[in-house]
Write a structure and sequence with these properties.
10 strands; 346 residues; alpha+beta; 5-stranded antiparallel sheet; 44% helix
Length: 346
């Protein structure tokens, strides 16, 4: 209302100061209720309409139009436009309420899929950054999960083929299978076989509903009391181990085929072991990080950047990586970005 009154004052003053009777500015006031109708409440819009219906005739009585017919036209337009503004405002508020309820439901459902970081178990602290490429989505094609099982802490880093909402179905199937199998299966290979079957079942259902089949690149880790960590790589980029020396990808051997494509490989999935001592930091990134490009087309130099991050906390690593990646890409993302920082507790 303060803005409406403030906009009224100069129009009224100019109307009264201009001597030329052919130049009339006061009819412009009938447009003022459109502004509270666009951003305000119904009550504010009604107040603006009432204000216009008081000010306009008052000024026109003091400085009348050439004929009463012109006066009647201006007042009818002011009333009709005022009613339209009130109706429009009411429709906008109802529409915004519906969208808010839908988004709140979507947020609740999506947050059930991925837990908020950081995640703490008796073996590790997991922090990181998760940025779906679609800015209005909370979950994309990248997934992660950490489960404290009777056999140690199991970690899943996955990337579903595709991005955004179309990839959520396969992501949900993978996460559900991992949460169950991580507690049930004593070996990492048996766990991965369960994940393979879950993706295959999802693809069979997707084929029936006309949706495209998808594969999932994944890295599954098993951390127990041993200083060595088990890993099964299913076509996922290898993690990086931060130590005092040069930073390089962890050597896991043959990466294998993604989940959902196991029938294409004659070789069974095998477990690789690598040293992960207490106090060390492991970083696993999706291809949205490793394949991020600058404006000149240069890939993000992840290994080079991580050399100075070995002695800082996981949340500081995630924060520095996010800032540095944004600088490198100038804030332009073409894929979901996930970088998980795993610090092994003492």
């Amino acid at each position: 209302m303060a803005c409406v009154v403030a906009a009224t004052v100069p129009i009224v003053l100019l109307e009264l100061l201009i001597d030329d009777r052919t130049v009339r500015l006061i009819p412009l006031l009938i447009l003022l209720p459109a502004f509270p109708a666009a951003v305000g409440t119904v009550r504010q819009t009604v107040y603006a309409v009432a204000w216009v219906l008081i000010v306009v005739p008052a000024v026109l009585l003091y400085r009348p139009l050439p004929s009463s017919y012109d006066f009647a036209i201006v007042m009818v337009l002011a009333f009709v436009l005022g009613v339209l503004c009130v109706v429009t405002c009411r429709w906008r508020i109802r529409r915004e309420g519906e969208l808010l309820r839908v988004r709140s439901t979507a947020v609740a459902l999506q947050r059930q899929m991925l837990r908020s970081l950081p995640i703490l178990t008796d073996r590790v602290i997991v922090d990181g950054v998760y940025l779906p490429v679609e800015a209005d989505r909370l979950v994309g094609g990248d997934v992660y999960e950490v489960v404290a099982s009777p056999y140690g802490t199991r970690l899943l880093f996955g990337d579903v083929q595709g991005k955004g909402l179309p990839a959520i179905g396969a992501a949900f199937a993978l996460l559900g299978a991992f949460r169950e199998a991580a507690l049930r299966e004593p070996t990492l290979t048996a766990l991965v076989n369960d994940l393979e079957e879950a993706v295959v079942r999802h693809n069979a259902f997707a084929q029936q509903t006309g949706e495209p089949e998808r594969f999932v690149t994944a890295l599954i880790l098993g951390i127990d009391t041993s200083t060595a960590t088990q890993a099964v790589n299913c076509g996922h980029p290898p993690p990086y181990l931060l130590t005092s020396g040069p930073v390089a990808p962890v050597q896991l051997g043959d990466p294998g085929v993604p989940l959902g494509l196991g029938d294409l490989s004659p070789e069974p999935r095998t477990v690789a072991w690598f040293p992960f001592p207490p106090g060390a930091t492991l970083i696993s990134c999706s291809d949205g990080v490793t394949e991020a490009r600058s404006a000149t087309g240069a890939f993000y130099p992840l290994a080079e950047r991580m050399g100075a991050w070995a002695d800082i906390s996981p949340w500081e690593v995630a924060d520095r990586l996010t800032q540095d990646l944004n600088r490198h890409t100038a804030g332009e993302r073409r894929d979901d970005i996930t970088a998980l920082v795993v610090r092994r507790t003492n």
